[in-house]
Specification:
Number of strands: 5
Number of domains: 3
Structural class: alpha/beta
Strand order of the largest sheet: 2-3-4-1-5
CATH superfamily of the largest domain: P-loop containing nucleotide triphosphate hydrolases
CATH class of the largest domain: Alpha Beta
Number of helices: 17
Shape: elongated
Length: 338
Amino acid sequence: MADITYNQIISTLEKKQYSRIYLLMGEEPFYIDQITNYIENNIIAPENRDFNQVVLYGKETDVAEILANVREYPFGSPFRLVIVKEAKELKNIELLKSYAENPIDSAILVLAHKYGKAKKSLVDPIAKNGTVFTSDPIKDYKIAEWIEKETPNYQLKIKSTEARLLAEHIGNDLSRIHNEFQKLQIVLPPGSEITQSVIEDHIGINKEYNFFELNNAFGERNIPQIYKITYFFANHQKDFHLIAIINSLNLFFTKLMTYHLTPDKGTETLKKIFGENRNPKIQNFIIQTNVRYAQQYSLTQLKKIIALLSEYDLKAKGVDSNTPSDELLKELIYKILH
């Protein structure tokens, strides 16, 4: 079976159409974890798991142990399920190539290969005789759109503004977004809307002071507001980590610099730079606002700002700096503005 999407693979699993070998690989761990968890909790009946299901870890096992478990005959179940988590850490994983070329019918082998891709020599036979799923990160500018599409799966609703607020604050950490939505499912009735007050009360993102507001203040060159938000962040480091602030600013200013560097200023190009939205009015607002922000800065200024963000990112991680985070933040903002 060839490489397929997340929704397709879940659909086949729900229909009990199983491959004999799965390779789940890529830089985005969320979907790999989701598929692995579904397989772990649904293929083998609970009463048969003690004899027919085993979970191994790449750092703690080897190919010989994996194959020994796979070849053990199932007891009271049509399949024996062997899941290898952290498969990227498995030494000599390419030795599974021979098995992938001829997997046995009485076993299902799952290789959860997060944060990287397996070698082609292993991918090809698995693609031919099993299922290969590649989990690529979602582009930063598509996170808000992803949140809007995913929210109904949790029996909740969200508007574009709130989706963008979550995207700005959390970034493309899909696992954290998933966890936050699961928490909201506990406290909100089905069909509830995720409003700004809900976000503030239950996710901890302040309605007035957040990454989104800081970016907008820089876009407007509203210096008093920039300092106001900066000092709020400095006094609430638990909720507003310096590295997260830098990442948000870096994404914001990189979009502005990309606008300057891109010869094509057509609508489709600007959608890719600043983010897409299905509502035409909101889409126009996003583009017009960000173009206006970009015109507030020259290319030379933007290059300097991004260099500063890179410098302070290293300092925030302790490279050649023992300065407290709140002071680093104030220094950074001052240098950006001057």
